[in-house]
Every structure is written in C-alpha cells, then in structure tokens.
Amino acid sequence: MIPFTLNGSEVFIDANPGERLVHVLRRFGLAGTKEGCLSGKCGSCMVLLNGNAVPSCIIPIFQVKNTTIMTIEKFAETDAYADIVEGFRLAGVSMCGFCNTGKILTAHTLLEENIKPTKQDINNWFSGNLCRCTSIDDLYAGVRQAGLLRRKRDHGK
Amino acid sequence: MDQVFFSDLEFPGQYYGMLIRSSVQHGYLVDIRPPLLPEGYYLYTAKDIPGENRLTALGTSIPVFTAHEIMYFGEPLGIIVGPDPAKVHELVAAVSIGTEPLDPWKFSEKFPASQVVMKRVLYEGDPDSLMTDESEVIETTSEIGLQDHYYAEPLGVAVNLTTEQLEIYTATQWPFHVRATVSAVLDLDPDEITVIPTTIGEAMDGKIWYPSLLAAQASVASVLCKKPVKILFSRQEDFLFSVKSAPVQIRYRTVLSGMDTIEAMTVRILVNAGAYSPLIDEIVDRITVSAVGLYAVPSYRVETYALRTNLPPMGALSGWGEAQAFFALENHIADIIARKNFAPVEWKLLNTINPGEKMTPGGADFTGKHRFDELFETVCLASDFPRKHTAYKLLASRRQNIQDGPLRGIGIVAGFQGNGFLGKTGETTRYAVEVTMDTNSRVQIKTGFHSLQMENILRDMTASILGIDAAQIGFTGTDTSKMTETGPETLSSKITILAPLVEKCCQTIQKQRFRQPLPLTVKREYKPSKKDQWDRHTLKGKPFVSITSGVCAVEVEVDTVTYEPVIRGIWIAVNAGKLYDRKAAQTTVSKSISIALSRILGERITIRDGKLIPKDSVQYDLLHPALIPDLRISFLESDEAPAGIGTIANNLIPAAFASALAQISGIPFRSIPLDARTLYQALEHE
Predict the structure, then answer these.
(1) Rounded (to 5) percent helix, strand, coil in chain B
(2) Over the range A130-151, which residues count as b (16 or more CB within 10 Å of their CB) and which as e?
C-alpha cells in the first residue's frame, strides 16, 4: 500500500508500483487530470506534487509515497485558481479544455516563483505544455494578467 | 458551452473496445483466429454487422471492418469488447490473423492507370509548344509529406445504450454524418440515434468523417453485446492509424516572355490518396485550382493525379491541399526570381491577375478584389522587406564560407484561402439557422455548430443588431435531436456561411419586432445561386464561396554552429472583409501561424516498409512556444462579406520560410520539415 495525501485527504493505494499516477488519479474519479501524450510533453495531466506542477503521466505511483498531490479539482477551490482563470478570460485565452489543467497549474507555479514573468520566463515554464488551440500571445497576456490580479489580491490582504 | 470530453465519460456497466488490426500492408484476409474468450468478452467482425458494412462520405466508401482485401497496415478487421480494458488489450494481442499478402501500391512518378483514383486536367493554349529546346525552361519539383493532426485528446467514442436511444458521444466536426453512418451500419432509424458532439479542440479537419467510423465500430459492438461501449485510442494508436494529410509531389515548368512575365506553365501534381480518402474529390479540385495561385498565365496545363497507395486513410488537414500547392508554387516562383535577379514584390505584382479578372486555372471566376498591392505595401512597410532583402542578398554574395555570419534571409509570399466547399451541392452545403425572439425579447439561436469562439461572435453580432444585452442571447441544441441539420464544420463555413445567415435572421427580426407580436422565429438556409456554382467536371464557375487573399513575410536567421533556424519575425496582412471580432481574428491567424511553424520546424513522419514508425509518436514535436517570434498581423477591413481566415497563414508561411532559407544558403529547399537536421545535411553537402 502506498500512502500519500490527495487533495487534503490521506489515501492508501494498492497498485503496481510502476503504474502511472495519471491512471491512479482517474481511478479516483479525478477526470480533470487528462491522459494526453503519456510522455510528459503535452501537460494535460499536470498535478501539483508538493506544490510543483509535474506531468503525472511520467510519475510512477511509487514515487508519490508520502508526498502531497493536489489535482485541478482541489486547486479550483483556491483564490489563486480564480485569479488565473479570470486573467486568462480577460486576455481572451481560448482553450479547448483538454490541456487547461496543465496551463493553469503551470501558470500557478510560475507565479509562485515570479509574480511578474517576462515572455522568456513564460516560454521556459511552458516548455512542458503543448497545444494547438491557444495563441501564444494570448497566453503571455493571460499569465501576466493573472499575475496582476494576484498582486492586487495580495496587496489587499 | 460546457466542455465535455468523451474520454471522461463512464456509463454503468460500460465495456471497453479495442480494434483488431491487420498485420500486413496489402493482402487478402483469410481468417481471424481469436484466443478463447472469457465470459463477458466478445469479438465482432464484418459478418456480425446488421446493416451495411461501409461508411460513405462525399461519394467514397470505407469498410467498417474489412472482410476481404486489406488495404493498409493496421486496418480494422474486428473489435473485442469486455469489462476490463487490460484484458481486452491482452486478448487483442493474442488474436492470430491469416492473410495472403499482395504487392503494395507505391507512390512514385510512374504508375499504372489502375492506381489512379482521380484525375483532373486543366489547360489553356498549348504550353508545350512554347517549351522548346531554345527556350529557357525553369523547372522545380517540391514534395510535401505527411502531417498528423495531433489532437490533445486522442480519438475515440463513447456509446451509451438506453431503452429508447443509442447515444453517441464523440468529438466530431460533422455530427449528422455520424448519425447517418451509424444508422446505415446498424440498419436503424436515424431518429433512434442521438449524437452528442463533445469538445473538438482546434478543428484541423481530422474529425470530419473519421469519428463516424469509430462510432460505427463501437455501436455495432454496443448493440450486439447490449452494453455501453467506449473506444479510446492510445496516443500511439492514434498516431499510427488515424487520418493524415495527403503527401503531394508537384513539378512546375515555366517559360518567361521577353517582357519577363510568365508566358507558359505546366504543373504535374501527384497526390498520395492512401488506402481511402473520402475527401479526395475536394482535395484534388482545390489543389488543381490553387496550383497557379493568382498569377496570370496565358498558356498553361495543370494535371493532377490522385493515386491509391497502401497507407492509412488520407485527409485534408487545414487547407485541403492549398497549403501544399502554395508551398510548391511559391517555391518555384522564388526560384525564378532568384535566377533572373528580379525584385520579388514588383515581379509578383506584375504577374498577378488584376482585380475582377478570372483566375487562371479553368477561367475560374474570382471577381472579388484581392487587394494584393495594398497587402504587399502593408507587409513591406511593417517588415522593411525591400531593404532587408537587398541587404541579405548582398551579405550572401560576399560570404566566402557558411560560417561567415550572420546568416539571415527574408521571404515574401502572396496567396489565398478558398472558403467553403467547391462542390456546392448535396451534403456538404446543408447549412441552416433559426433565430427566435420571445415575448421577453430573449433570443435563442439554433444552429448545427458548437464552438465557444463562434458563439461569442454570434452573440455580440446579435446584441448589436437587435440592441439587446448579450446576456439575453442563448443557443439551442447540444445534440442532433435539437440542432439544425448541417454539413461539416470546416473551410471557414461558420464565418462565411453561418454568420451571414444569423445576421440576416436578426435583421429580419429587427424589422418585424415592433410591427408584429412576439415571439418571432426566422429561419434561413444557405442556397448557392446558379452563378455561384462550380462545375466539378469542367472545372469552371465560381470555385469558392469567397476567397481570402493575404501576403506574408518571414525573416530567418540560421545559427552558424548548430544550423538551428531562428525566426526573427513574421508579418502577415489579410484581406479580411468585414471583421466581426478583431481579437478573435488575431487569435485565429496566430494559431494558424503556430500550426504552420510547427509543421516546418518539427513535425516529421517517417514511413518504413509501408508503416509509420511507433517511436515517431513520441518524437513528434509540436512547436515549442519559445520558437514563436513576435507576430505582426494586419487586417485590411472592408464592407465586403466576412472572409475565412483560419488557414491563410498556414498556406503562406511554409513557402515564405523556405524562400528566406534559400536566400541565406543559395540552396533551394523543396520539402518540409525544414529543421536543423535538413539544413545541416543541405549546407554540409553544399
């Protein structure tokens, strides 16, 4: 049995140690984590592992032992999520929805590190997100807009 | 519109289906020998199909499960379904298939007549008589290979069986085709089938008919085993066996007049149609009509042959052959300009047809204003093309060694995007809308399409015409039982056909709403007029619903050590007609640029022994965002009808990029992708 914290609850999973985390999460009914490329390139399966966005398709389940996993379902309850979604909306970021999870969680991790990212920062951080349906200029604007909203919210506290 | 993905759907008692695929490229199927199936697991093949064992689209038929002649490696022969996907996978792997192999059809310059599935020949005058031994004939041959549509969500379908209905959930660009196909395959009344289109993502034209095939396969299993059935491709299965863009080889031969204008041109086009290609009529016509672009050519011959081969089914991908035609044409034109030392912009304008003149191939009637002079001026001003082109030419002429940087070049290309289907009759042009204003002045729009971006455009337009709040406007219909029956959602049909229909409905309601009691319902259907018809046999008439012209410049620098091409800038100007939403238009062109760059720089498919290579599915690289330069997108707006802009950049950028590289290296590049590997091989060889 492999213990880890999933969306705030301690869970134990009986699985083949090599099973991909994305498959385990979907067994929990967490469909926000999508199965896309299964090679860590597209970002559709991103989760926060100890606070960092990682592609769950290349994380074998044994590696999550005693870690904290947050999926998009739990992250959607946070102010940080609301800022990013609103920032993306204001910038007109069009997303089919399949890779939203990766974009949102990557943007969150980036903004945790750097609240005023440059284009280059955004390029570097989004190197693990592939998508045909989002304009890169809109993504730059969306991440910056989300940063602005987060700064305003932090300033108001 | 909620985003729903079929891959997330689970129904009580659901079974999982996996296709049994052929293990030979071409041959006869002798038998299928499954392992012993445990209880609750079933195998279905062609003989189990209750209705017709075929999908029909645009006049071409494809077997749902092959019963006799195997046409490509991986062709579906049957399906195994059961409750545990791992067990289903194991059982499919254990199936033994008996075959009698046949020689495969190959794609080459010389081919037997029996391999030709379609041929088009267009000519004017006698170009061969002008290509004598004394005349200088400029000849180039370009080749464009396969490209994968690559959807974030791999292909598949979920079928739910209720007591009254067969519910089909799949990401399709043509929900009514799914319904018609399943109806024929199961011999069921269409009213007993409801198709619920799920989120498509970027359309890319890979989901026009292919989801109908998967829906038919899953529905057969579902009805026979009386369980909900889901087929979900793995990434590798999707890559290896789904529809690809058709590879094309195009040879141009041109003779110039004493005035340096094009005097005669011959074009020979070979299209690899794969094992099946339901869209081949449209692709072949479109590539033929686009082959000479908007150049004025007094004497020409365009011959196009679509050849059957034993590769997976071929599809359109964005552009339906236009992108391939423009790459080859502009590659050829760049060669003429370089050899003759012409000024690119001036020479192109000199040879372009005048506004109002007929297009060269077949005298196709293009009476719109292409505004190429303004488009060139816009791009030249923004990019500083004339100065850069001259400077880089000088740099190249003084270069002693390829390591003598900077290695910079710039290319400029003009072309168009054809909107709407060429064959404007039958199933492809069934477009209708219905707009209702109720007693509270709330408006419901009923269409056959679903797209968040399009809904926003229609909502803003409706609010503006009727002077009501956008929040009062809604959309009816999320499945085929509630939608108006329509043709495929492709070729910018939403913006060029659907939006004007909604606009007309709203204008009618606005005229009537203060004179007649509410509610008011207005319906409009698309009916191409006789003068707008295109004759598929003579290739004469008006080929497209409308044409979007554009000009694009691409500036490239090549790293002198790694040979990595770096794009310094892209400037594009589009003659867009009436723009409903500038921001949405910018995003659409930007995405088209990204798809084009991805194709040029990264997407590579190798075919070995008639098979796509599994490792390519992992190595297939979409463009990294860091490689997308600053984009300068300009629109020439007017009061003319809105023009489609979804593929214009994809049609122009590859040729402009190749032209820039040719200026750097002095080597013409006749194929894509044009990545560091290709450059290294070409430059080192040189």
Answers:
(1) 35, 30, 40
(2) bbbbbbbbbbbbbbbbbbebbe
The conformation of residue B496, written as its DSSP 8-state character, comes to I
CB contact under 8 A, A39 and B618: yes
Q: What are the pLDDT digits (tens) for B85-128?
A: 999 999 999 999 999 999 999 999 999 999 999 999 988 899 99
- On the question of pLDDT at A157 being above 70, the answer is no
Nearest residue of B to residue A123 by CA position? B626
How far is C-alpha A22 from the chain's CA centre?
13
Predicted pLDDT at B276: 93
- What phi and psi values does residue B632 have, to the nearest 5 degrees? -115, 105
Q: Which of A39, A97, A136 sits opposite B628 (nearest CB)?
A: A136
| Cβ <8 Å between A127 and B591 | no
The mean-pLDDT minimum among B160-174, B235-249, B539-553, B644-658 falls in B539-553
CATH number of B12-103+150-242: 3.30.365.10
The phi, psi pair for A36, rounded to 5°, reads -110, -90
Amino acid letter, residue B19: L
**pLDDT tens readout for residues A12-23:** 999 999 999 999
Q: What is the pLDDT of residues B307-356, one digit of tens each?
A: 999 999 998 877 788 999 999 999 999 999 999 999 999 999 999 887 77
Q: What CATH architecture applies to the domain B245-422+541-684?
A: 2-Layer Sandwich (3.30)
Comparing alpha-carbon positions, the chain B residue that sits nearest to A32 is B8
Q: pLDDT value at position B426?
A: 63
What domains sit in chain A, N to C, each tagged with a CATH number?
2-75 (3.10.20.30), 79-156 (1.10.150.120)
The architecture of the domain spanning B431-525 is 2-Layer Sandwich (3.30)
How far, in Å, CA of B226 to CA of B246, rounded? 38
Q: DSSP for B220-240?
A: HHHHHHTS-EEEE--HHHHHH
Predicted ipTM > 0.85: yes
Q: Which residue of B has its CA nearest to A119?
A: B626
A34 and B153: CB-CB below 8 Å?
A: yes
Asked if B625 lies within 8 A of A126 by C-beta distance, the reply is: yes
Break chain B into its structural domains and give their ranges: 12-103+150-242, 245-422+541-684, 431-525
Q: For B591, which of A99, A129, A133 is closest by C-beta distance?
A: A133
Q: Which one of A34, A132, A139 has the shortest CB-CB distance to B150? A: A132
Nearest Cα of chain B lies from the Cα of A156 at a distance, in angstroms, of: 31
pTM > 0.90: yes
Q: How far apart are CA B173 and CA B199, in angstroms?
A: 10
Tell me what percent of the residues of chain B surpass a pLDDT of 90: 62
Query: Token pair of B334, please?
Result: 């760049």
Quote the strand ranges of chain A, DSSP E. 2-6, 9-13, 46-49, 52-55, 68-70
Is there a contact between A99 and B152 if contact means CB atoms under 8 Å apart? Answer: yes
Q: Which residue of A has its CA nearest to B625?
A: A123
Residues of chain A in contact with residue B591, where contact means CB-CB under 8 angstroms, are: 132-135
Average pLDDT, chain B: 90
Kind and range of the H or E element at B593? helix B582-601
* CB nearest to B199's CB, from A96, A120, A123: A96
Closest CB to B591: pick one of A38, A123, A132.
Answer: A132
| Mean pLDDT across A53-68 | 97
Are B652 and B376 in contact by the 8 Å Cβ rule? The answer is: no
Question: Hey, is the C-beta of B572 within 8 angstroms of any chain A C-beta?
Answer: no
Residue of B nearest to A29 (CA): B8
B424, pLDDT greater than 80: no
Distance from CA of B294 to the nearest CA of A (A): 29
B167-to-A71, B189, B212 alpha-carbon distances in Å: 30, 13, 13
β-sheet bridge partners, residue B473: B443
